[in-house]
Specification:
The complex is a heterodimer of chains A (about 1400) and B (about 110).
Chain A: H1 11-15, H2 20-27, H3 44-55, E1 60-64, E2 69-72, H4 74-81, H5 93-96, H6 101-114, E3 118-127, E4 134-146, E5 152-161, H7 163-178, H8 188-200, E6 209-214, E7 220-226, E8 238-239, H9 251-254, E9 259-262, E10 282-290, E11 293-302, H10 311-358, H11 363-380, H12 385-415, E12 424-426, H13 428-445, E13 449-453, E14 461-463, H14 465-482, E15 487-495, E16 498-505, H15 539-549, E17 553-559, E18 563-571, H16 595-605, E19 635-639, H17 643-655, E20 659-663, H18 666-675, E21 680-684, H19 692-701, E22 710-714, H20 719-728, E23 732-735, H21 740-770, E24 774-778, E25 784-787, H22 789-795, H23 818-833, E26 836-844, E27 850-861, E28 868-876, H24 878-899, H25 903-918, E29 922-928, E30 936-939, H26 951-960, E31 969-970, E32 974-981, E33 984-991, H27 1000-1038, E34 1047-1052, E35 1054-1055, E36 1058-1059, E37 1061-1069, E38 1075-1085, H28 1086-1106, H29 1110-1122, E39 1131-1137, E40 1143-1149, E41 1154-1157, E42 1163-1166, E43 1170-1171, E44 1185-1188, E45 1194-1198, H30 1210-1223, H31 1229-1240, E46 1250-1256, E47 1261-1266, H32 1272-1285, H33 1290-1314, ...
Parallel strand pairs in A: 13-15, 19-20, 19-21, 21-22, 22-23, 40-43
Antiparallel strand pairs in A: 1-2, 1-5, 3-4, 4-5, 6-7, 6-11, 7-8, 9-10, 10-11, 12-14, 15-16, 16-18, 17-18, 24-25, 24-28, 26-27, 27-28, 29-30, 29-33, 31-32, 32-33, 34-46, 35-36, 37-38, 38-39, 39-40, 40-44, 41-42, 41-45, 45-46, 47-48, 48-49, 49-51, 50-51
Chain B: E1 5-11, E2 17-25, H1 30-38, E3 44-54, H2 56-64, E4 69-73, H3 78-84, H4 86-89, E5 92-94
Classes of the chains: A alpha+beta (about 1400), B alpha/beta (about 110).
Chain lengths: ~1400, ~110
């Protein structure tokens, strides 16, 4: 102090002694001119009040006397008064707080009138302490001040400013609401409407807000506005891309930066005020950031002019923008996924429709319709005209149906990779011209010109004749259908090494927007004018597939109204075709019957029926429609090695009307019969390879052929030969030479007999063949001896290779697919060992692809042979199997993802699901964040580094980044996919090992799962962000605790569901140097409980400062809590601790007892002073308890979440907590707090939120003093006092004192040398069993040298002798001496 | 400011000089102690009974005169005297015992 400027001494000087700086300014006030007069004349009561005021470290102001003259202390000046200091001192309070006098004046008047204190919680005041009216919140109490005679003449106000808490809570509420959308997935519009509603609910922080989204052209579109009406000049619907003229600067947010805008000028003339009296003067534009790309848009936030734009406000606006951006991201990603999923589903639907429509089993019933129909037509030819016409209708439609089924089957084959084309060299021009000619009559009858221009090409093109017919016929049929005048033209040319076939018409053409879908399956152009509305929409799709089967391409170009041209290009030669599919040129024949349905169908479109007498269905062999032979021509197979004999027999039998085939020996006969059994076999006995008798035996041994009648011819006469033949199983026997009539009679008799006899067998065969399921018969050894055509369709194995002995060729390979092989082996064992059963197994189609079949089987007895056979069916359940697999994979992935608490867990869980699903060797995921940094890896098996990955895998993952997302990519050893991850793009690779096929089904499944995963990751990320925000804000409300020394506190929210809660801790430094300790627990969870908690905490704090009596504080808190909804039944522990003596006075409102752990390990519960929870009974006195915290004892206060567990008494938890404290006897108190929280946490985290407060007595000693030797004595005095509090034996204390003294003396010496007057720090902390001492200076350690400084060297020796461990750490900034000794 | 230390010169009946110290001895006041020792020639008894603290700076002064002094020290100072080795060079008597104890100095 500078005594020279001090006014005259006397009592007045003492009045202001409580605070040096404010006291000086108060002393400088011209008190003579105030109603109070000179301080020397002040009454004792005023002097005392001023002294209390100035000595207090808590913000207070007071008003005294007629004009309510203003006084305040340093804390009030700092927190509230601001720029008004020191002007305000000594002035009438009504001037000082003119702007708030409405509120303050009436309250002061009440206090003066009634003598009762007032209480205000978080009152909003606009203070001009920083040069502008500032929104601030204060919790304060006005209490009366009495003069010496006891009259109320003034008032004292204790204030605690809560601006930060109130503003934080308000912002937190908005952020919580933004994050609390119950519907996880919405459209972008819904997201913006929702966020808009939430922003609109906080007009204090956001008087208005505008959300703009960037459009593709760079302009920005207003997507949402709050506070501003649509059409307001400050809220234009569209902002130009850049440059002047825009109301808001879109350029800066577009670059990812934010911009502060002064709201001056025309558009801002009439801005809304929000909750305030005046409109905002500034606005902040922040970008809606997008991971790894330009922002989505930006948020313009009108700023509350009554709050500074500090880090907190800016952070709030940015977090808000972050929420909006996350919402937009989620919505857009969802929409993208949705589109993708729909596309996949559409593909799937098309496939399913396709498969379900194939109905290849139509063929058998169709055949059974068409052949009798043929007979009927022949029978009625020339008969009843009406019947004949109706039969013709049936016939034509039968042909049409057959054509459709065949087309579908072609697709099915192509789809399944089963199309087995046989390419033969052909003269493309000739073949095409011939096909075209079939259509000539139809085209000309339609009144169109038909031009066929097909000159020889000079080179051969390899064609599958059957497939090529379909190509040309479909195109011609299509042209005719859509052309009403003009011409249809077919041309072939050679062009640049390719053969080009063009089919063009002058028809209605195709609109440009339909062109892309022209070749799409099942796609029909709606409302097109055509000759017929019939059509399945698959003709052109099939054409393209078939052209591609030939290695060619097809293109279409068209002008609506002018015509369409299809151009097919086919390579010459066979180089592009698989060698094993090439066959020799077959005999050129007329276009097969396949053309018939096309032409028939086309003719039906044309006006007018064909003439009724026109020949139909002319047979190429010219036999004509009538026959003298058997009504239904029986088929006879002739087997003879003699060509003359063979020809004779054929001529004879054909002449009699039999459909006859001839083969040269028994083996050929057997093969032919197995493929297609005839009605009768006429066979010579003597033949090479397989003779007639052996043939009969082989036929009879095979159930499928056992019933085929055989007539044996032999040159050997005699009874024996005849008997031999009949014994072998022949039906009849004829000895050469024989009369033609006899042969024909025997043949006729046998055919008729066989027809009678074979009726049942044929019926059975027809039935079996009409089954849509694959049918098979196994003999006793498990060999498959009979199958139907569906079996061949499903598995690719035909009757020609029967029997199939186990292991059947359709079993999955034991080496490459051991699992599937094992499944089939087990199923086979079941089949052989049981009478009936069913199973589902994977089998391998002849062409190698995987088929899943559902099998049903039963044992039966063969009535002919008496042997036990197994009859079974296979149903193709591949589609079902994969659908179920998809569903269950999705379901289990969903479960895994729902269990995940954070992104890494979600991703790891998903990878392990994928690994299990594909039985992959491993799955690895790399997240590329777009910065170019090494991607972050997640893997199922180990956690490798990016560099540690095999180079090939790194390349794969890198390459995936270039792929479109959600599109699987398969390689030799695995498959991968790219998907969106909240932190970038995620490349995922499944390592499937060698030679594992990755089928189309696998691709679909992977795409679906990856889409699902991407969505789930986005969702988890959003929840994670909300959780972090909630936690940060809760901790902000509880802190920043200016924690007194010796204390440690922890707060942990309940882990599942993670929510803020109502638990709190608090320490309050009281004016007399004692410390108030509060731990409380409000009922409930969530924002409401947190709000109640905030109010109770503030109230309890203020009450303790006013009256440091725990019991009375809780009684006052009872009254306060009664008025706060949700505060009733809160439990509170309230204590007042004297840190000097360890004396603790406390009272508990229904709170679990504190635990005091003594240095000897015994514990004591603070179970005195207990009463009911808050506000249950008002006005009931509360008891208090007292205890002394002994030296080196630890006090633990907590909320019930720490110790309460289901199905366990509370005492068990308390004991566990006590043990944890005992074990941490030698740990620093802050570390101990961490240990206790960790040790008591249940496996899945705390169920309830937990507040914990620890105090160890005495608090650590911390001193800082200038490096001067005169400081040694005071430092020792302080240390000695602290050691006394630690309750140590005198000699121990003396030793510590000496060691500390030496360390301090050294520090002072360094200080003298290097940095005179620099401070030296000393810190001493005691735990139960040890004492830790640190002395740090800012000089350099001096290595003791014997001659120069014997006594300094001695100092170190002393330190080492007195303490158990001494560490000296010299450093450039100073030297630290760390000492440690056991004390118990 | 120096640490408070009172030094009183006295003489035993046998003529041996006695210096009685009271207070604390540290680097801030060793000069006073050194001065007192330097101005007192011959054999010398230094009575530290009323000394509550003695650090290495103080010990250095005593070491300089180790060959001609005897010490009377309270039990509290024993570890310092022993550890530093001074007790090996100069006789040390516990306060309240022996021929030079405080009780017999009158």
């Amino acid at each position: 102090m500078d005594a020279g400027q001090e006014p005259a001494g006397g009592p007045a000087a003492g009045v202001f002694a409580g605070d040096e700086e404010v006291g000086r300014d108060l002393a400088a006030v011209d008190w003579e001119s105030t109603p109070l007069g000179p301080p020397a004349d002040w009454p004792q009561s005023l002097q005392t009040a001023v002294d209390i005021l100035l000595s207090s470290r808590f913000p207070m102001w007071m008003a005294w006397g007629r004009e309510l003259t203003f006084f305040c202390n340093a804390a009030y000046r700092r927190d509230t008064l601001g720029d008004k200091y020191p002007w305000a001192l000594g002035r009438p309070s009504s001037q000082v707080w003119a702007e708030a006098w409405d509120a303050a004046g009436s309250r002061i008047e009440t206090v003066l009138r009634t003598g009762e204190a007032t209480w205000d919680e978080a009152l909003l005041l606009f203070l001009e302490r920083s040069g502008y009216p500032e929104e601030s919140y204060h919790t304060f109490s006005y209490s009366p001040l009495r003069d010496d005679s006891g009259d109320v003449v003034g008032m004292l106000c204790v204030v605690s400013e809560e601006t930060e808490r109130v503003v934080n809570e308000r912002r937190m509420a908005t952020l919580r609401d933004l994050g609390s959308d119950p519907s996880v997935i919405r459209t972008e519009q819904e997201v913006l409407a929702f966020t808009g509603r939430q922003l609109g609910r906080n007009p204090r922080d956001l008087p208005f807000s505008l959300t703009y989204l960037f459009q593709e052209d760079g302009s920005a579109r207003l997507a949402n506005a709050t506070g501003l009406a649509a059409g307001h000049p400050a809220a234009p619907a569209v902002l130009p891309a850049d440059g002047p003229g825009g109301v808001w600067p879109a350029a800066e947010p577009a670059r990812g930066g934010s911009a502060l805008i002064e709201l001056a000028g025309a558009p801002f003339a009439e801005l809304p005020c929000g909750d305030w009296a005046e409109p905002p003067v500034r606005a902040l534009a922040v970008p809606l950031l997008r991971q790894g790309a330009a922002p989505y848009g930006f948020l313009v936030a009108g700023l509350n002019r009554y709050r500074p734009l500090d880090a907190g406000y800016r952070g709030f606006v940015e977090l808000t923008a972050g929420h909006i951006a996350a919402g937009v991201a989620g919505a857009r990603s969802y929409e993208a996924q949705q589109r993708r999923a729909e596309e996949l589903a559409e593909l799937d639907r098309a496939k399913t429709a396709f498969f379900s429509n194939i109905s290849h089993e139509f063929r058998t019933p169709l055949t059974l319709i068409m052949s009798p129909l043929q007979e009927l037509r022949e029978r009625y030819d020339g008969g009843d005209e009406r019947v004949r016409q109706e039969l013709d209708v049936v016939h034509r439609n039968g042909l049409r149906l057959g054509k459709l089924v065949n087309t579908l089957l072609d697709f099915s084959r192509i789809e399944a990779g089963r199309m087995q084309a046989a390419y033969e060299p052909a003269d493309l021009a000739a073949v095409t011209a011939e096909l075209a000619s079939v259509f000539r009559s139809a085209v000309e009858r339609a009144g169109l010109e038909f031009a066929v221009d097909c000159p020889p090409l000079g080179r051969e093109v390899y064609l599958d004749r059957g497939l090529w017919e379909k190509v040309v016929l479909n195109l011609l049929s299509n042209a005719l259908k859509f052309t009403f005048e003009g011409a249809i033209r077919v041309t072939t040319r050679a062009d640049g090494g390719e053969a080009v076939v063009v089919v063009e018409d002058t028809g209605i053409g195709v609109a440009a927007d339909e062109m892309p879908r022209l070749f799409e399956r099942f796609h029909r152009i709606e409302n097109a004018r055509s000759r017929s509305n019939e059509g399945s929409g698959i003709g052109l799709a099939l054409v393209r597939e078939l052209v591609e089967v030939h290695g060619g391409t097809i293109a279409a170009d068209s002008t609506a109204g002018a015509g369409t041209r299809f151009t097919i290009r086919l390579p010459f030669g066979a180089g592009h075709l698989p060698a094993d599919a090439l066959v020799e040129r077959a005999e050129a024949g007329a276009p097969s019957v396949a053309a018939d349905p096309y032409v028939q169908e086309a003719l039906r479109w044309l006006p007018g029926e064909p003439p009724a007498d026109a020949p139909r269905d002319v047979r190429p062999d010219g036999t004509g429609g009538t026959s003298s032979g058997p009504a239904a021509a029986a088929r006879v197979l002739v087997a003879d090695d003699n060509a003359d004999m063979r020809e004779y027999l054929v001529r004879l039998l054909r002449g009699a009307g039999y459909r006859t085939r001839a083969v040269r020996d028994g083996q050929e006969a057997l093969d032919a019969i197995r493929k297609d059994a005839p009605d009768l076999v006429v066979s010579d006995v003597m033949m090479p390879r397989l003779d007639g008798l052996a043939l009969v035996a082989a036929l009879r041994a095979d159930p499928r052929t056992a019933a085929v009648p055989v007539l044996l011819l032999s040159a050997r006469a005699g009874q024996e030969a005849s008997i031999e033949g009949l014994t072998a199983g022949a039906d009849d026997y004829l000895v050469k030479p024989f009369a033609a009539a006899e042969l024909l009679a025997r043949v006729r008799a046998n055919v008729e007999l066989a027809r009678l006899r074979g009726h049942h067998a044929r019926w059975r065969t027809a039935l079996v063949d009409s089954l849509q399921e694959a049918f098979f018969v196994c003999d006793e050894q498990g060999a498959v001896v009979e199958i139907n055509s569906a079996f061949t369709d499903i598995l690719g194995f035909g009757p020609e290779d029967l029997p199939y002995a186990p292991v059947h060729p359709w079993w999955p390979d034991a080496e490459t697919d051991p699992d599937a092989h094992r499944q089939v082996a087990e199923a086979f064992a079941l089949l052989m060992g049981s009478e009936r059963g069913s199973y589902t197994i994977p089998v391998t189609h002849r062409d190698g692809h995987r088929v899943w079949v559902g099998a049903t089987f039963a044992q039966a007895e063969d009535p002919d042979s008496g042997r036990t056979v197994t009859v079974g069916t296979f149903r193709d359940v591949t589609a079902e199997h994969y659908a179920i697999q998809r569903d269950s994979a999705l379901a289990s992935l969903t479960v895994r993802l729902a269990e995940a608490a954070d992104l890494p867990e979600a991703l790891a869980g998903a990878l392990s699901e994928l690994k299990g699903l594909w039985r992959a060797a491993g799955v690895v995921a790399a997240v590329f964040d777009g910065t170019g940094a090494a991607p972050r890896l997640t893997a199922t098996d180990l956690s490798p580094s990016w560099q540690g990955l095999p180079p090939a895998l790194r390349e794969r993952l890198e390459a995936l980044r270039e792929e479109p997302s959600l599109t699987p990519v398969a390689g030799q050893t695995g498959a991968g996919i790219l998907l969106e991850h909240p932190q970038g793009r995620l490349a995922l690779w499944l390592d499937l090992g060698e030679r594992r096929p990755f089928t189309d089904e696998d691709r679909l499944l992977l795409a679906l799962l990856a889409g699902h995963l991407a969505q789930a990751l986005a969702r988890v990320h959003q929840i994670e962000q909300q959780r972090e925000t909630a936690l940060a804000l809760q901790r902000a409300i509880l802190g920043p605790a200016r924690l007194p020394e010796g204390f440690a506190v922890r707060y942990e929210p309940a882990s599942r569901p993670l929510e803020v809660g109502g638990d709190w801790y608090d320490t309050v430094a009281l004016p007399d140097g004692r410390i108030g300790i509060v731990v409380g627990d409000c009922v409930g969870r969530g924002l409401e409980a947190a709000t109640v908690m905030g109010q109770l905490r503030s109230a309890c704090r203020a009450l303790l400062i006013q009256d440091a009596d725990p019991a009375r504080t809780l009684m006052a808190l009872d009254h306060f809590a009664a008025g706060v909804p949700g505060a009733v039944c809160s439990t509170v522990f309230c204590g007042v601790l004297d840190p000097e003596t360890g004396r603790l006075v406390y009272s508990s409102a229904g709170h679990p007892p504190g635990i005091l752990t003594h240095p000897d390990g015994t514990t004591r519960l603070l179970d005195q002073g207990r009463s009911i929870p808050l506000a249950v009974r008002l006005g009931q006195p509360r008891p208090y308890g007292e205890c002394t915290v002994p030296a080196r004892a630890t006090l633990m206060l907590y909320t019930d979440g720490l110790v309460e567990r289901r199905r366990r008494p509370l005492t068990a938890g308390i004991n566990q907590a006590s043990e944890a404290v005992q074990e941490g006897r030698d740990t620093a108190v802050d570390t101990l707090a961490t240990d206790v929280m960790a040790r008591l946490a249940p496996a899945g985290g705390y169920d309830d939120d937990v507040a914990l407060l620890l105090y160890r007595h005495p608090a650590p000693l911390e001193l800082s003093f200038p490096a001067e030797s005169g400081q040694l004595a005071p430092v020792r005095r302080a240390l000695r006092g602290w050691l006394d509090k630690c309750d140590l034996p005198p000699q121990t204390a003396q030793n510590i004192l000496v060691a500390a003294g030496e360390a301090c003396a050294n520090a002072i010496e360094h200080g003298h040398r290097h940095a005179p007057g620099q401070p030296v720090w000393l810190r001493a902390e005691a735990s139960v069993g040890s004492l830790h001492l640190t002395v740090a200076d800012s000089g350099r350690w001096r290595t003791p040298t014997p001659e120069a400084s014997v006594h300094r060297g001695r100092g170190v020796i002393l330190m080492r002798a007195m303490m158990q461990q001494v560490t000296i750490t010299p450093g450039p900034a100073g030297t630290t001496v760390d000492m440690h000794t056991r004390i118990a | 400011m120096t640490t408070p230390l009172t030094l009183t010169a006295d003489q035993r009946p046998d003529g041996t000089a006695v210096i009685r110290a009271a207070g604390e001895i540290d680097m801030s006041n060793t000069e006073a102690l050194a001065g007192a020792l330097d101005t007192t020639p011959g054999r010398l008894v230094i009575d530290l009974t009323a000394v509550e603290y003695l650090d290495s700076a103080g010990l250095s002064v005593l070491f300089a005169h180790a060959d001609r002094i005897e010490l009377i020290a309270p039990e509290l100072l024993t570890p310092v005297l022993t550890t530093s080795g001074l007790a090996d060079l100069a006789p040390v008597h516990a306060s309240g015992t022996g021929p030079y104890n405080a009780a017999s100095r009158d």
